[in-house]
Amino acid sequence: MQEDRAPEADAFAHAIAAEIPRLRRFARVLVKNGDAADDLVQETLVRAIGAREQFQDGTNLRAWLFTILRHARAAALRRAARSPFLSPDTMPEAAVSGGQEERQAMRDVIAAFRRLPPIHREALWVVVVEGLDYAEAATVLGVPAGTLRSRLSRAREALRRSVGLDAGEAGEAADG
What we know:
It holds the Pfam family PhyR_sigma2. By secondary structure, the chain is an all-alpha fold. It has helices spanning 2-31, 34-50, 61-81, 100-115, 118-129, 134-141, 145-162, 167-175.
């Protein structure tokens, strides 16, 4: 029986390993500090491997891992609330190639993203950057799909206002 489980365990381990870069990116959005993000990913991997039996084959592994990561972050926040030793999170600097204008535009977007409430940052990240569909993202974030859509709409509008675009300009920029 042990021999039958080895290929399945290997496949599961390889599938999880393939998701590590996405987990790291999402963790950096949530905690903003590189070392803390790596710790959060490690905690997520430990929890995922320990809960292997709870994963249902045929379901979205990435969404399952993101949910575990968010739960691990929530647990870390509860611990941090009791500890005065954790430093505030900082957003990682985004690498941007190009001229000064492009760098400044990216800084403006990053600053606008930082100013979003955490629930809006998370919603925007999992849908726009990680590419989860609305149903998967809603499951990861633990909210109804309608709530997710509302958060996305508000986040996008806040970003547009913050970088000086109105809704008409944003549509033209996306089309052009």
